[in-house]
Specification:
The complex is a heterodimer of chains A (about 110) and B (about 500). Chain A has about 110 residues and is an all-alpha fold. Chain A is built from four helices and no strands. With about 500 residues, chain B is of the alpha+beta class. The chains are: A mainly alpha (about 110), B alpha+beta (about 500).
């Protein structure tokens, strides 16, 4: 007797759990790359943007944003592994990074 | 049922902990040892001067005489005054882009050739695997990445521990071996968790703009401009108009600075463009009596003696004072012996947290029969665990052997004692690959224990004046402290080797 594949909430949750327990090699590679390289790029852009918008002397802006950047990087890594939807991570990461790059390096360059 | 978040965090904690644990254990262990870098240098140096209560003016004159005689045309001089922990007068200068330095006896001014900066090896390894950061920053960046993974491990570890508080009081050494490793891992990770997070984060803060140069790129044309700005050192630039100009006597400038900083509180001075018309003398206060990496500073025009800048702690921005505080928490010059020992135990707890995590991974998968990992992968993981934990411990002890046995001095000595460290590491890896896992652990831990016991013994053969009974009789607690600490570490390692050996023979009999 075969079960009909009906997407009940319980079954979806089960699927997510199974995937979290046994992720495929491609998914692992994608997440590791997103967390390390994507995470660094996003943190880099956000740090530049924060330094630009802080209304303090440039030397202080560098110190404040750079010292916070490590906490941000850690948070991004956790997010990449916590969110079950990889597509959403990629899109959100790219959009955020572009916005931050525009704020950090756009305009007066 | 466990949620998807807990599962994904458990996966992240397990695998990032495994891969980076091999880097983090050596970094934490050498960091814990590096707390006593000055004491290790003293331990390794037979001719370390004992009396540092030499008159300031005389020290300045001795150092200036050396620099004037040997390198009058160098673009930069620096003089480090002796202090209780590091009783050496040190002269430093730059020569064609490279930094040179000599140690002088504070009393006689004689050059001390056999001071090898032994203890600094542990610092260099701890932050860049002993690679020169300027030439090859790869080690520096790998350790930076490992620090981020350590923080990720702390956060994901908290997430997967729903029973954080309860686990804290749970230690079941006799239930099952794997349970004991898990409880041990929880105990040693959670109790000093604030220390683990603090020491890792502040390690990144020390040279934060090198790890994350984004803000410097956004606001400054280059790093040098940023550094000049943030450290408020604009005075140090400017072209020379004339050379061979007579300067103000340095001891009188130091005396003037000490009127403000307090007697005996000048720690070091820079002389930029010595003997030129744009000479600048930058005098810095000691920083070991406060938690601040940036020291107070007074700057004089080297020719006219005019005061160009006076920068006290309160004159700096809040951002820099915060960064300076965080850096000093890591760099650890404040506090004295008690705080230093607390840092040693904090660092060792960090190392133990990583080690128990690595062993837990190995044990859990060795017991499971679902064959998720191929046997040769498990074997490789076990060998790397042995190399990272037992091998690094062996290498640290072997380094101290090198310092006692090597006859070379200067750069040659630095090279060879580092080679002893890395050579021991390589031997450890080969041995771990060649031997069965449980034998590998026992044999390498036993070897590490023997090497540690040997540390206080070697002096009897090579330098009787530095041997333990001699230092104890003289009340030399610095040298005796290194010897006794090595012996204590040996006891601890021997006990764990014995424990593993007994369990292994029990298991073999049960089979």
């Amino acid at each position: 007797m075969s079960k009909a594949p009906i997407a009940t909430p319980a079954r979806r949750a089960e699927k997510i759990t199974r995937r979290a327990r046994h992720p495929s090699a491609a998914e692992i590679a994608a997440r590791v790359l997103l967390a390390s390289c994507g995470g660094y790029l996003l943190t880099y852009s956000a740090t530049a943007a924060l330094a630009r918008v802080l209304a303090v002397a440039p030397a202080s802006a560098v110190l404040i944003s750079t010292n916070l950047s490590f906490a941000l990087y850690v948070a991004v890594v956790i997010w990449v592994f916590a969110d079950s939807n990889i597509k959403r991570i990629v899109l959100a990461m790219a959009a955020l990074a572009l916005c931050c790059l525009a704020i950090g390096f756009g305009g007066s360059v | 049922m466990k949620g998807a978040l807990t599962l994904s965090m458990a996966w992240l904690h397990t695998w990032s902990g495994l891969i980076f644990g091999w880097i983090l254990f050596p970094v934490f262990l050498t960091g814990a040892i590096a707390v006593f870098w000055a004491e290790i240098t003293c331990w390794a140096t037979p001719s370390m001067p004992r009396d540092v209560r030499v008159d300031r003016d005389r020290l300045t004159r001795v150092a200036t005489d050396y620099l004037e005689t040997h390198v009058p045309d160098a673009p930069m001089w620096r003089i480090n005054y002796p202090r209780a922990r590091e009783p050496l007068l040190r002269v430093i200068w730059s020569e064609r882009g490279a930094i040179q330095s000599r140690h002088l006896d504070p009393a006689t001014g004689a050059v001390l050739d056999d001071v090898a900066d032994s203890g600094k090896f542990f610092i260099r390894f701890h932050y860049a695997f002993n690679l020169d950061r300027a030439k090859n920053p790869i080690g520096f960046f790998i350790i930076g990445a490992a620090a981020i993974v350590m923080l990720v491990g702390c956060v994901s570890g908290i997430v997967i521990h729903k029973r954080l508080f309860k686990d804290f009081f749970t230690f079941r050494p006799h239930s099952s071996p794997q349970r004991a490793w898990l409880d041990g891992h929880n105990l040693i990770s959670v109790l000093p968790l604030p220390f683990h997070i603090m020491i890792t984060y502040t390690g990144l803060v020390l040279l934060c703009w090198q790890y994350m140069p984004a803000a410097v790129h956004a606001l400054y044309p280059d790093e040098a401009t940023y550094r000049t700005d943030v450290l408020q050192r604009a005075h140090a630039t400017g072209a020379a108009v004339e050379t061979h100009v007579g300067m103000q006597p340095l001891y009188s400038l130091v005396r003037k600075a000490e009127q403000h900083m307090g007697d005996g509180n000048v720690a070091y001075l820079y002389i930029f463009n010595p003997n030129r018309s744009n000479a600048v003398v930058e005098i810095s206060r000691r920083r070991d009596d406060r938690i601040a990496q940036q020291s107070d500073r007074i700057v004089f025009d080297g020719v006219s003696g005019q005061r160009l800048q006076q920068l006290d702690h309160v004159d700096r921005s809040y951002a820099l004072r915060t960064q300076s505080f965080a850096s000093a928490l890591h760099f650890m010059e404040f506090g004295g012996p008690l705080i230093r020992w607390l840092y040693v135990f904090g660092g060792l707890a960090g190392a133990a947290a990583i080690a128990t995590g690595l062993v837990l991974f190995e044990r859990k998968r060795a017991q499971r029969d679902d064959h998720q990992l191929a046997p040769f992968v498990l074997r490789l993981i076990a060998a790397l665990n042995i190399t990272a934990i037992a091998g690094t411990t062996m290498a640290c002890a072997a380094f101290l052997w090198g310092e006692r046995l090597l006859l070379a001095t200067g750069a040659e000595r630095t090279f060879w004692s580092a080679s002893v460290f890395f050579g021991t590491w390589a031997i450890s890896l080969l041995h771990a690959l060649a031997r069965p896992t449980s034998r590998g652990w026992v044999e390498q831990l036993s070897a590490a224990a023997l090497l540690c016991f040997g540390v206080p013994m070697l002096a009897f053969a090579t330098a009787p004046a530095l041997s333990l009974p001699h230092s104890l009789a003289q009340g030399d607690w610095v040298r005796a402290g290194v010897d006794l600490s090595a012996a204590a570490a040996g006891l601890l390692i021997a006990a764990s080797a014995r424990h593993l050996h007994r369990r292994e023979s029990l298991a073999r009999r049960g089979r």
